[in-house]
Design a protein that fits this description.
Elements: E1 3-4, H1 6-19, E2 25-28, H2 39-49, H3 57-67, H4 76-88, H5 94-103, H6 110-122, H7 135-145, E3 148-156, H8 157-164, E4 174-177, E5 179-182, E6 185-190, H9 199-205, E7 214-217, H10 223-227, E8 232-236, H11 240-243, E9 253-256
Parallel strand pairs: 1-9, 2-3, 2-7, 3-4, 7-8, 8-9
Antiparallel strand pairs: 5-6
Length: 278
């Protein structure tokens, strides 16, 4: 499989969109696809560093840690850090970690989550600077050609909504991990699909009943969504597990190498499937 670049894919996709008889949908993963960052990891790094978790989160995080054969301490911050450590060492299930990144926000108001998310985006490498070079131009060209752009992500919904503002993508075009809200505060009850792996198809179905003309992703969790694309399956600096699934795709595949962010930071092709970047 030969590598290509975002500009070439942009030109190819614009032609496909313009030839389409109806307004097509282009689906994007978020983390490591729209930006060289992981907004859930950013959020949780900030939550743990500043010890911002609500007391209600403790039992839920402890239960997940125990199920992954960890030993809870009773401190939700230490227990969540231990769970992330297990995941980094390949000893915790990805779906469990994805779910608890949303469940662990129990007790927060929606605006409270948004505030913490915005604060986390400003720390370290500010999130706007981690956007991939050429991605904004791609999205603008697809919109101008008549496509609808949607995001399907395994990160918490409110956090993705705040991050997607960088590209002018609104909440109505985002399907991510939600928890039920009661009396103005988030609960620990998932509401809707767990938007990872096959759950990304269920998440996409909440936005559209027509398969995407093209889909973009970076890792194994995106395989079902990429497989559903009818025109192009676009892999951004794809992780090993995603590259290995190239032959599974129904549509033509493009391995897209993006070497820099808009701030000039070099972006490697990951050699592991787990997302460990902030």
């Amino acid at each position: 499989m030969q590598w290509t670049n975002l500009a070439a894919v942009r030109d190819e996709l614009v032609v496909l969109v313009e030839r389409n008889g109806r307004r097509p949908t282009i689906a994007f993963d978020a983390d490591s696809t729209l930006w060289f960052s992981d907004v859930a990891n950013r959020l949780w790094d900030h939550l743990l560093g500043e010890k911002l978790l609500r007391p209600e989160a403790g039992p839920h995080i402890a239960a997940v840690l125990r199920a992954q054969e960890g030993e809870p301490t009773g401190d939700p911050h230490r227990d969540m850090a231990a769970l992330f450590d297990l995941y980094a060492r390949g000893r915790a299930e990805e779906r469990a970690v994805v779910a608890v990144q949303a469940i662990g926000l129990v007790g927060f108001t929606e605006e409270g989550v948004r505030e913490v998310a915005r604060a986390s985006f400003a720390l370290g490498r500010p999130l706007p600077g981690t956007c991939f070079e050429g991605m904004a131009e791609l999205l603008d060209a697809l919109r101008a050609a008549g496509a609808r752009l949607v995001v399907v992500s395994g990160s918490p919904q409110l956090v993705v909504e705040e991050a997607a503002r960088l590209y002018g993508i609104g909440a109505e075009d985002i399907s991510s991990l939600r928890t039920r809200v009661e009396a103005g505060r988030l609960t620990a009850e998932l509401q809707g699909p767990l938007t990872a792996h096959e759950g990304k198809l269920a998440g996409y179905a909440l936005l559209s009943d027509v398969p995407p003309l093209a889909a973009f992703g970076d890792g194994p969790s995106d395989i079902p969504l990429l497989r559903s694309a009818t025109g192009l399956a676009c892999m951004i600096n794809p992780r090993p597990g995603l590259r290995a699934a190239t032959r599974e795709m129904a549509a033509p595949v493009r391995w897209i190498r993006i070497p820099r962010t808009v701030s000039g930071e070099e972006t490697p092709v990951p050699d592991v499937d787990e997302s460990t970047i902030l």
